[in-house]
Design brief:
alpha+beta, 2 domains, about 30% strand, single chain
Length: about 240
């Protein structure tokens, strides 16, 4: 457990933070006055670390514009889905050459129209574990149920001419228990019918990177970031951990 390890580090008087046994120890003052990149071995105390809670270390990173974003809370996704449910599915967009549609009305106090579009391959529906589907009007709970059975789920809404992705504040794709997000600044969303090019492949894999590419989405990657403040007799140094 990293948090416990960090607490133990703070309790120790001196902590070896790197393992370059062939290098002699370097004072922090020397490192701060040096030009990067260099490789050093240090002996230092851990004064502080951020964030204090481990889950806060996970961010979303765009490799194109190099921006970092907070991972949205589930409630945000729920609100976006609720708003999109106000737009009824357009029946003219159902049962095309590359997907098959199923619709029904819920028995809620305020009934909702739901449409699920199952993408076909060679004019046939695939096994659930290989199927990509698009859903209109679904709740967060309903979408998570679908992700347990089908390979990929894309939340969409109807326009006059085509299905479209929701606001990119929401995940554009869900696969298993992973939500995939796109960069608002770098993405140029394309019509959903762009997915038909993957469905036409000999063996559609429905990989998130390929889906993002054909939909004009710059895929955000989950990264792990922490900041450590190290001290010795000569000064202080901020050390950053950044990893995919």
């Amino acid at each position: 457990d990293l948090e416990l390890d960090l607490e133990r580090c703070q309790q120790l008087s001196v902590t070896v933070l790197t393992d370059h046994q062939d290098l002699s120890n370097t004072e922090l003052k020397t490192i701060t006055n040096s030009t990067a990149p260099q490789q050093y071995r240090v002996r230092a105390k851990l004064r502080t670390y951020k964030p204090q809670k481990l889950h806060q270390s996970v961010k979303l990173h765009c490799s194109k514009c190099n921006s970092l974003q907070e991972v949205p809370y589930g409630d945000d996704f729920g609100f976006i889905l609720h708003d999109s449910a106000n737009t009824a599915p357009n029946p003219e967009l159902h049962n095309t050459s590359w997907y098959e549609s199923v619709t029904w009305t819920t028995q809620d106090q305020k009934p909702r129209e739901i449409a699920i579009h199952f993408v076909k391959h060679d004019e046939m529906l695939q096994d659930p574990e290989n199927t990509l589907l698009m859903i209109e009007g679904g709740t967060l709970k309903e979408i998570w149920k679908l992700t347990k059975r089908f390979k990929c789920v894309i939340p969409v809404r109807s326009t006059e001419d085509d299905l479209e992705l929701l606001d990119l504040s929401a995940p554009f794709l869900l696969q298993g228990n992973v939500k995939y997000y796109g960069c608002k600044q770098c993405s140029t969303p394309k019509p959903i019918k762009s997915l038909s090019s993957i469905a036409a492949e000999q063996h559609p894999s429905w990989e998130p990177t390929e889906i993002a590419q054909v939909l004009g989405i710059e895929l955000l990657q989950y990264v792990f970031i922490m900041k450590f403040t190290l001290v010795d007799e000569t000064g202080a140094l901020n050390a950053y951990l950044f990893d995919y």
